[in-house]
Design goal:
With 267 residues, the protein is an alpha/beta fold. It has helices at residues 9-16, 21-24, 42-57, 82-94, 101-110, 121-134, 154-164, 184-194, 213-223, 226-231, 254-266; strands at residues 30-37, 65-71, 111-115, 140-147, 172-177, 203-206. Helix 7 links the parallel strand 4 (140-147) and strand 5 (172-177). The two termini are 40 Å apart.
Length: 267
């Protein structure tokens, strides 16, 4: 199901303008599963899957990588399988990227969707079986679980994965998205609860806003600019105003914003 490598490195460079080591290496030992929990939600379709698609376009994903969307069918009754998942959630957003029909078809061939209720042992074990089927014939079954979920679901989700869906032949990693709790106390409690099932090297915390160019440039603007450096001082600044503009509303995200609010979401 993985896309074939380019005929030559030159073909790849002409198409994508960069080269990845993954593109040229044939790995006969490992299989990689990238499992996105909360895959039918707003964050996943707008941020997570377009980012994964760009990794696919750049050939930064190993050729033997399967991408598995997971979500609770009780909350997404319109998603019956991978075809619904592709047409109703992903395709409208992925088509906005600079990609050909062949690119979309190749990414679609990597994709699976498994409806899972995380508090059901049988449901999580069915996900484990699907992952093992995709990695059949490979010696090492490596899994990365991306939790595009509210933070109160992190602990029960990790518990279910560790108990019923953990690889016995390869590595497992868990990625948790911000906001990581509502305050310092809650963030510490949440972090401590994950250590019950995960070691620190198995846990990755991510905030996609920290990678935005403007955010990365703030420190440079403040400390590396000799002229502005003197002006960025309490003596010269009356107030700091942050304006966050989006062309979209809170459709599909109202419950999230009711719980966390825009300040915690952005900062």
């Amino acid at each position: 199901g993985a896309p074939p490598p380019p005929v030559s490195p030159l073909d790849y460079v002409l198409k994508y303008s960069n080269v990845s080591v993954m593109q040229l290496r044939i790995d006969k030992e490992n299989h990689y599963s990238l499992v996105i929990l909360g895959a039918a939600g707003d964050l996943a379709k707008k941020k997570t899957f377009p980012s994964i698609f760009l990794l696919h376009l750049g050939r930064f994903l190993p050729a033997n990588t399967s991408i598995i969307g997971v979500d609770n069918p009780n909350f997404h009754s319109d998603i019956k399988g991978v075809d619904d998942f592709w047409e109703l959630r992903l395709r409208p957003y992925l088509e906005k990227e600079k990609a050909t029909k062949q690119d979309l078809q190749e990414f679609r061939s990597r994709l699976s969707f498994v409806p899972v209720v995380m508090d059901s042992k049988e449901s999580v074990e069915a996900l484990d079986l699907r992952i093992r089927e995709l990695g059949h014939g490979k010696a090492k079954d490596n899994r990365v679980f991306y939790l595009a979920l509210p933070s109160f679901l992190f602990h029960p989700a990790v518990k279910a994965l560790r108990t019923h869906c953990w690889s016995s032949t390869g590595f497992c990693r868990v990625i948790v998205e911000k906001p990581f709790g509502k305050n310092g106390k809650e963030a510490k409690e949440l972090s401590d609860s994950l250590t019950e099932y995960l070691q620190e090297h198995e846990t990755f915390r991510i905030d996609h806003y920290l990678a935005k160019t403007l955010v990365l440039n703030l420190l440079t603007l403040r400390f590396a600019n000799r002229e502005l450096g003197h002006l960025f001082h309490a003596h010269h600044i009356a107030n700091v105003r942050i304006t966050f503009k989006e062309a979209i509303g809170v459709s599909g995200r109202a419950g999230y914003f009711d719980s966390y609010g825009i300040i915690r979401d952005i900062m």
